[in-house]
Amino acid sequence: MSVTNDDFPDEALAVREYVLVLSDGSRVSMAITLGDPEADGFAARLARENDAVAYGLISVLDAPEAPEAPIVWMVNADSLSLAKAAGDGKVSAELQGLIGLYLGLFFVQTAPFAPHLAGIRLQPIGVANDNHTLH
User: Fold this and answer.
1) Tell me, what's the pLDDT at 129?
2) What DSSP line would sit under 86-116, residue for residue?
3) C-alpha–C-alpha distance, residues 83 and 71, integer Å
């Protein structure tokens, strides 16, 4: 259930892994990376196209409703965006909530080498459809 360095591209400046217990009692592993803004990978290019001040990847292992490909997270001046691969199914509401919670923790833990993340506070906004946005 553990991730390895081979699971993430070279553009990762930091990686944190968390073991979560879902409401049904199952355990899943979530790994979050902080991406290198100078990298040339897909996630870095997507972040630059969206004027992100920071970005990274989220991988969830051993969860039945988790996307197979990593989720790209990006923070710009006023919001956090999550992008998943087109072929991946919908992320459960429980998993969405845990992603927001652990991204907040990740931002605090990586503050020593990414101080611009330390001040970000994630709060859900009203939902207009089945897509959720955190600010």
Assistant:
1) 40
2) TTS-PPPHHHHHHHHHHHHHHHHHTTTT-HH
3) 6
